[in-house]
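Researcher: Please translate sequence to structure tokens.
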Amino acid sequence: MKWLIASDIHGSSFYCKKLLEKFNEEKADRILLLGDILYHGPRNDLPKEYNPKIVTALLNEYSEKISCVRGNCDSEVDQMVLNFPIMAEYAILDVGSRLIFATHGHIFNEVNPLKMPSGSVLICGHFHVPKILKHENYLYLNTGSVSIPKENSWHSYILFDGDRFCWKDLKNGEEKLSIRLSSEY
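Model: Translation complete:
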């Protein structure tokens, strides 16, 4: 199964459309969203083509293919308009020999990880900067941001095929980072 993993759309209809185009181009099976779907938040500038109503309509068309966790900018009122659950603090994916703990990153993150079995993967958004860091007991990954990248990073998403995480540039699909679970971690 191929997952497209992304975070921090922040209400940008422009980047949400691009993300869904990549989902179709990449022939992914599922979308995992790591929060901050509709609202841009008080610390961020408005993203390109900020329009939460359009983002809602676009994502609702894919609701049966989306799994999502809550970001710090997501609220119960957002859940009222989205046709897929968004209010869980984290999700756990069993990928055979490992567990992937997916969360937004504002509560559980690299500094404050969830209690996980050794060899697990913790994947977050929130910080808007793509990252791979091997810790003693787990692998930390950050998706970066779909709409508001920071620290000179790119508009990003991840493809995960069950063995390899591959960060791609949303603008052109160029591979930027990758890690293979079986051999590199």
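Researcher: Any highlights?
Model: DSSP finds four helices and eleven strands in the chain.
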